[in-house]
Amino acid sequence: MNARWLGILPLLTSALLSAGVAQAQTTPVTAKATFAGGCFWCVEADFDKVPGVVSTTSGYIGGTVANPTYQQVSRGSTGHAEAVEIVFDPAKVSYATLVEKFWRTIDPTTKDRQFCDAGNPYRTAIFTHDAAQMDSAKRSLAALEKSKPFKEPIVTEIVAAGPFYAAEDYHQDYYLKNPIRYKFYRTSCGRDARLQQLWGAARQ
Fold it and tell me: Quick check: is 42 catalytic?
């Protein structure tokens, strides 16, 4: 290697390192939140509207069988709940804000049921990914117990997250792929009517 290249090499190395640092600084840091709120089509639709949410994935969590199918889960034999894994940007929306949103998109007073869907796969739960999320969720629950606009007790679980398995492709973004069927399902299931009854003005 001649002397000219020896002189240029440190400059190139420095430039490449600087570019790498700049890229690392501009790459958004994301985190995960996982919520079970009955039909995952509806949970996806609700959280896709939240500023700061990067993506949502419908799937199954909390069970004992690896890579379960929708048919297995819906029979209630695997222990999984329908859930949504949310990737979010903490610089734009906090985990605590997502938990607050979650409460107001579910009926937390019913065990193993959400609206017209009954069975253990439709239980409500917050699946936490670390100690900070567990603490935040529990503090949110304690505050909600004092301020809730309904008399019934809250039965939603707060548990540590285990393996999450993405649901079949046809379940992903169902509300966008099949808007008419989705709207009919959500309306006929009475989801929004019950949420309004539970939360009223506090729903927003």
Answer: no
Rg (CA), the chain: 22
What would the 3-class secondary structure string for 46-103 be? Answer: HHHCCCCEEEEEEEEECCCCCCCCHHHHHCCCCCCEEEEEEEECCCCCCHHHHHHHHH
Give the whole-angstrom CA distance, residue 141 versus residue 157: 10
> Cα–Cα distance between 144 and 34 in angstroms, integer?
19
Model-wide pTM > 0.70: yes
User: Which is catalytic among the residues 39, 42, 116, 189?
Assistant: 39
Residue pair 148/198 in contact (Cβ under 8 Å)? The answer is no
Answer yes or no: is 13 within a domain: no
Number of domains in the chain: 1
Q: CB of 166 within 8 A of CB of 57?
A: yes
Q: Is residue 105 part of a domain?
A: yes
pLDDT tens-digit map of 91-138:
999 999 999 999 999 999 999 999 999 999 999 999 999 999 999 999
DSSP β-ladder status, 157-160 and 124-128? parallel
155: CATH: 3.30.1060.10
Alpha helices in the chain (DSSP H): 3-26, 40-48, 70-74, 95-103, 131-147, 174-177, 179-188, 191-199
